[in-house]
Write a structure and sequence with these properties.
This protein has 1 helix and no strands. With 32 residues, the chain is mainly alpha-helical.
Amino acid sequence: MASGIWKLLGLLAVVALVSFVVGFLLVSRFVG
């Protein structure tokens, strides 16, 4: 059960990181 929770947290962290990078690139493109 704990391993499943850690997998879910890792997946959420990866998704958050990817969305942050994509959002940053879009903002920098629009602002720049």
